[in-house]
Amino acid sequence: MRVAAIATAVVLGVAVAAVVAFRPDRAAEVGAGVAAEVLCSAVFVSGRPAESARTEELGVLMGFAARLVRYEVDAPAKTVRARLVPLARATARFTPGYGCRLQAPSDVSLPDVPLPEGPPPDETAADDGFAPPTPVAPTDAGIAAALDRVFAERPGAAPKQVKAVVVVKNGRVVAERYAAGFSVRTRLRSYSVAKSFTNALVGVLVREGRLAVDQPLGAREWPAGDPRAAIRIEDSMRMTSGLDAAETGSGFDPVSRMLYLEPDMAGFAASRPPKAPPGTVFEYSSADTLLVDRRIVEVIGGGPAGVRAFAESELFRPLGMRGVTMEFDGRGVFVGSERVYATARDFARFGRLYLDDGIAPDGRRLLPEGWVAWSRRSTLGEPCGAGFWTLDGPSAFAARWVGQGFPKDGFFASGNLGQRIYIVSSRMLIVARFGFSSPPDFGIADDITLIAAAVKAK
């Protein structure tokens, strides 16, 4: 009996330790936060039905747990309340011009009067190669067939749920397609494509002489003598900060907690302990991006309104991007790791900035000379640069993509669920592709087929 009692005590002790360590209650709270934030942005930013967003987008993000999500959309209050289990609840609120934000008592206020967003997307008369207002049908048979393949669902395969594709060659849209319920006006969620927007904002500030990538990041939580005080802006942009901030998307990892439970995201990121010297180890983590975003906000000044005004005047308007939505955390920091909304055409316009070496269509240089080459340079041999994924290094990832037909000089902005802006400078080619695709492939093989077809097209 004594041995059995001891064994039972050990089992119970292990179970309690596992609960304390893995915090299933916290994972459920993360899930409720994901549901509230995604559904709020889908309804109030993208103009999509909440139930469609739950089944398609949350269905991929959360798997079976998406079926357990219960939600309420309050249109007059512009809020979405979501729960996953009785005690895991979250509320997200939409502010015009500033997107959605999970609500917490400590949140700073967002401006009551948003900046004007200009005319509806792609409703201007200017001909910048993006012919308004209807989708451009492909005239090349190879591109048309490849688009069919990109959008086609295969029985027994993971769903791709592609929603928008824009192909730009030699400065003009040569093909585009949208799924039912999506159009040239639909603002799409960037997910981690937003990291490339963080790169662009830093680039503008570097050109203006207000930042340098080799200067310390300067987080206020790191006093002199703290090993983290040696982290440079470049280290965080290249995700070699050495911070202990793993990103697995499991709901248990630090980044999941940061994005969906912490109002002060950058403050949480700065609190993470070091586990490697800066610049020595690559580990993909949105915590690094939030620290850079806070530095951007500090340098620009004026809080969310100041950041929006700066982005509009120094980036979006010169590129012809209309009605971009940037979301902010509870401290007013741009969530430049994953929360930008724009039309597929505007994402392609953003890609053109990097295709054209940082020069806007009117000839104005927005990014410093050499910035694009620096951004797409591989980090420690990994297929990741500073806010972009790249094939210029020796990684197996790069070899596999090139082996499938992706040009070696190509690089791309990339986000969860298959959001991508592919850029091939040597072929004057941009492909913006957005949807709610499932891992592990996210439809990439079909994307490469489309890119190969666009390269061959006259």
Average residue pLDDT: 91
Report the C-alpha radius of gyration, rounded: 22 Å
Secondary structure tally, helices: 14
- Sheet having the most strands: 6 strands, antiparallel
Biggest sheet strand line-up:
6-5-13-12-11-10
The ordered string of helix (H) and strand (E) elements is HHHEEEEHEEEHHHHHHEEHHEHEEEH
Which geometry do the CA atoms define?
globular
The oligomeric status of these chains comes to single chain
Strand % is 5-15%
The number of strands is 13
Secondary-structure-based class equals: alpha+beta
Question: How would you describe this structure to a colleague?
Answer:
The protein has 458 residues and is of the alpha+beta class. It has helices spanning 2-22, 24-44, 50-62, 141-151, 194-207, 233-237, 254-261, 265-271, 286-300, 303-319, 344-355, 371-375, 396-403, 444-456; strands at 70-74, 79-85, 88-95, 99-102, 162-169, 172-178, 188-189, 325-326, 340-342, 389-390, 411-415, 419-424, 429-435. The strands form 3 sheets. A 6-stranded antiparallel sheet has the order 6-5-13-12-11-10, sandwiched between helices. Helix 4 (141-151) packs antiparallel against helix 14 and helix 8 crosses helix 9.
